[in-house]
């Protein structure tokens, strides 16, 4: 029996520590610990609720707009504000643009290097890479010379001794299964994706005025629509957005999805590893008839228990009995004690660090061991993220989702149970991107149609003035962030924020056990994962990365000593 | 030898929720109120990571301002000309993950890397969650801005 510590997990946002017990080459126990303090809530107290979006979106550099969107939804919900259709469409365009950019960046820049051996790409035959590329896609950049050029640049980079972004890989690990030619293909697209993503996010600057951290507005969006006005969203800007969306569809269809399938074909065994929890939660996303009508969302709201795809349970974030957070194993204290749970509207953020002084060898996992709280839905531990969204949609009878999932299972020749796995999670992210990138075009076409017919309203004054607000109000903003179910809860007293709580996707997935000992997603998914080489626990990283961890918002700030443990420790 | 100011981008990075860690952004906010040479652009890079690739590539020259925790006295302003991501000093938060890819990507994509100057500001051990700078760091914001302008002039 050996205890493996991965701290920090690299190529994620934020600071995550994983401790895993390995017996006979298989993980038998796992602990996930967020190592940074959480507490954005404390900064928001007493502020104008209409400003909350600007602070919440500073929590993270990856999904800045998601927090801003969730925050304005939350405040609008509290104040009974319904935004105009164009505002909903523009928010959807910005949100879908975020999804597509975020998922592509996750696949190529944060997750691919768990499957792709960069060093092996140096021994590839560029002619063969070209042949493979042309057999799976009509993407034009596919000549032997093109791949040879990339290979040469990569070689110079590696030979310079500056591995830089590639420094932390387990190159040469025997669990890398791709032939050198596909490794070269993937590394080439890693670089292309980096170039491409910077174009797509211009959509945020066009509608949000700036990027990073675009502007949002309670009651609508902070931009005006006028085809002929220089400072408005005019025909030139709309044309620009249209061409960015067209390019995004092309990239997803001709690069991301073919690469995903090509790589997945060599790792089908991962369709039986890393399944973890059998319960999936989605708040639903992309309203088409307003935030208050979730039955018209593109991704439905609901929960699945015990992998039973014939039943979808209703989810109500307002119900005091449904979503509750525990702190039994988290470094907080509740007035009602360590075994209590609280609904986020009554949420408390009181730090109580009881852990060892870092650096330390191992956490006391019988006590508190993480800065992440433990949320539960009706006391069930739930997985959130792309797989949950796709499964809830699949089980709800959404034919778009069913078609793309069934088609992919057929192409890979794997059973439906392969969805419940590390591979399934990574595939679900790609497949939903394929759907979403087309939805982005639908929202855009709809917006253009509205503008052409003179429907240009983007903001409602209704509810803007604090003098019109009730003395107290509470609101709930539910969003499906790229990483999963995200909730902001607000209580407003006398026109100021009295309480603000975030229940973020990585809180669901990365949290420690609850008082009854139930594991959350990461810990559950690691059980049963084989580890071929305890000195190079590549398999742990694969499964953890498949969730796309982002602890920047799950937990904020720095570890208790104000220092990051930078060394990669295995012991 | 310095290049003309036009095409120069000053980027302040950092997390403004973390007090002094956001000093880069505070310098940008300070400079927004100053008379600047024509063509000099400012960017609140925040925790932008990957999102900074576009603006940085489009600029011929980049001046980065970031916080660092090193062994120097609080408020020390160190001017560096880093080449690879590994030449950069350690920063506190997560925002450096995308930034490193961005920097190395210049070499890997074969595009001409911009001339990068980094002003690393030594900050004290963080003491809590705040939007405000500490007194010591707040006091040197004008001096950082002055050095940035001297650099690009």
Please characterize this protein's 3D structure.
Chain B: It comes from Candidatus Polarisedimenticola svalbardensis. Chain B: This is Hydrogenase maturation protease. Chain B: GO terms for molecular function: aspartic-type endopeptidase activity; enzyme activator activity. Chain B: Keywords: Aspartyl protease, Hydrolase, Protease. The complex is a heterodimer of chains A (571) and B (153). With 571 residues, chain A is of the alpha+beta class. Chain A has one domain: Cytochrome-c3 Hydrogenase, chain B. In chain A, 38% of the residues lie in helices and 12% in strands. A 3-stranded antiparallel β-sheet of chain A has the order 1-2-3. In chain A, strands 7-6-8 form a 3-stranded antiparallel β-sheet. Chain A has a 3-stranded antiparallel β-sheet with strand order 9-10-11. In chain A, strand 9 and strand 10 form a beta hairpin. Chain A is globular and about 70 Å long. Chain A starts with a strand and ends in a 17-residue tail after the last helix. The longest helix of chain B is centred in the last third of the chain and has 18 residues, at 135-152. Chain B has a single domain, classed as HybD-like (Rossmann fold, 3-Layer(aba) Sandwich). Chain B is built from 4 helices and 5 strands; from the N terminus they run E-H-E-H-E-E-H-E-H. In chain B, strands 2-1-3-5-4 form a 5-stranded mixed β-sheet, with helices on one face. The mean pLDDT of chain B is 82. Helix content of chain B is 30%, strand content 22%. In chain B, helix 1 crosses helix 4 (135-152). The chains are: A alpha+beta (571), B alpha/beta (153).
Top keywords for this entry?
heterodimer, A: 571 residues, alpha+beta, Cytochrome-c3 Hydrogenase, chain B, three-stranded antiparallel sheet, 11 strands, 38% helix, B: Rossmann fold, five-stranded mixed sheet, 4 helices
